Amino acid sequence: MRTDPEADTPDLDLAELVRADGVQFVLAVFVDLTGKPCAKLVPAEAIEELRDEGVGFAGYAVGALGQQPSDPDVIARPDVRSYTPIPFVKPGLALVHCDPHVNGAPWPYAPRVILRSLLEKAAERGLSLSVGAEVEYFLVDRDEHGVLRVADPKDTADRPCYDARGLTRMYDHLTAVSTAMNSLGWGNYANDHEDGNGQFEQNFKHADALTTADRVITLRYLVSVLAERRGMTATFMPKPFTDRTGTGMHLHMSLWRGTEPAFPDAADARGLGLSPLAYSFVAGLVEHARGLQAVIAPTVNSYKRTGAVSTRSGATWSPRVASYGGNDRTHFIRVPDGNRIELRGGDGAANPYLAAAAALAAGLDGIERGLDPGEPGAGGKGPELPPTLLHAVEALQADDVVSGALDAAGPGVSGYFADLKREEFFDWHSTVGAWELDRYLTAF
Which residues contact 240 (CB under 8 A, 6 or more apart)? Predict the structure, then answer.
């Protein structure tokens, strides 16, 4: 397990780690552009082959990875620094995140490869990105008629957020996840009932951007598996219930120069404690917010969350405009203190590698151009966010910086991604749903 993500650890050997931990099988994991986790189960007896050669996949079968059936295999090569024993899932099981390659070169459609490329560009400027991610999810099941419902039948309060009783009823699940995170050295520091019935959040400490993205993927996997053991389904869908708060994935970000933080400035005249560089980073995010939404809110359902005007609790907790301000959760960008900024536009469907890459590209553009976001304002000031996925895709294609982030490891990825998302929108748009039947069946 990589206990110090920031450290340079070239001496780690995957085979030695597997033998030392008594691991019997290793999940070699990567994700496609939608964030779908893909893996092969590699026995310990073949760990040298995994270490030296990687493991092959038919890329077209994977899903959204930019391949056709005639294309050569995708070879997933493990990053030993992400090696993680997970005996709480199965005794003797470990996981390692991989970088997909094709014909010996990093595959430009692979999200982990894309994020690596953006981090290298930041490093050329002497900067590194630290990220903390808030992972929210619902615990649900279905009734005898197949209707989706909250897994806890007693979780019915109009304002259930932080409710100690609802938290305690899910104690076994939440503590299993917390114990798993802490055994991996992630530093789980809080677990809470969120604003929607059946909605929870479990937090872990920030790390470098690549490590945090790996951990988000690992955590989604762990939460799903541990929920299934108790007869529940964990969903990261942005808006599974019309009348309840949606699921976000807020990213807390800061830039560093070596071991020195680049964001704080106690002399900030605006009172948020940010440096001029930090304000330019914020300005870049605001400038590119509309195109960025296609990446950090990447589904049809995402815009049911950001477009909501009310919920049972009385608040949506999701931004509708690209505003920024202090410790105020109505903003697209919240500034809790001078050490970090919180990007609140993303949701549970976001691919964490792409989200971090696109946000970094937007922020760096703000720095390079010396942009200024203006004075911190109340909610309502700033560009309006796209109302649908189709609008977001159009904004993405018109934004050279955000689309350029997707193309960071090679050309064609942003167009491929936009086509996937446009097709997703029209698949939904062409499907007749219950709302249309209820509204139109006998209306004329």
Answer: 138, 140, 148, 247
**Residue 165 one-letter amino acid:** R
**Tokens coding 335:** 């500034």
Determine the average pLDDT of the residues in 319-323: 93
**How many CB atoms lie under 10 A from the CB of residue 127?**
20
pLDDT digits (tens, 9 = 90+) for 146-188: 999 999 999 999 999 999 999 999 999 999 999 999 999 999 9
- Is residue 289 within 8 Å of 332, Cβ to Cβ? yes
Verdict on whether the full-model pTM lies above 0.90: yes
Q: SS3 for 136?
A: strand
| pLDDT per residue as tens digits for the range 232-264 | 999 999 999 999 999 999 999 999 999 999 999
Q: Which of 287, 266, 282, 289 is nearest to 337 (CA)?
A: 266
Angle at 91 between CA 85 and CA 93, to 5 degrees: 40
Residue 288 DSSP symbol: T
| Nearest alpha-carbon partner for 295 in 175, 191, 405, 183 | 405
Pairing status of strand 333-337 against strand 324-325: parallel
**CA 103 centroid distance within chain:** 29
Whether residue 204 is predicted with pLDDT greater than 60 in this model: the reply is yes
- What are residue 231's phi and psi, to 5 degrees? 75, 20
**b vs e for 24-45, b when ≥16 Cβ sit within 10 Å of the residue's Cβ?**
ebbbbbbbbbbbebbbeebebe
- Report the C-alpha gap between 106 and 114 in whole angstroms: 9
Crossing angle for the helix pair 352-368 and 111-124, to the nearest 10 degrees:
30
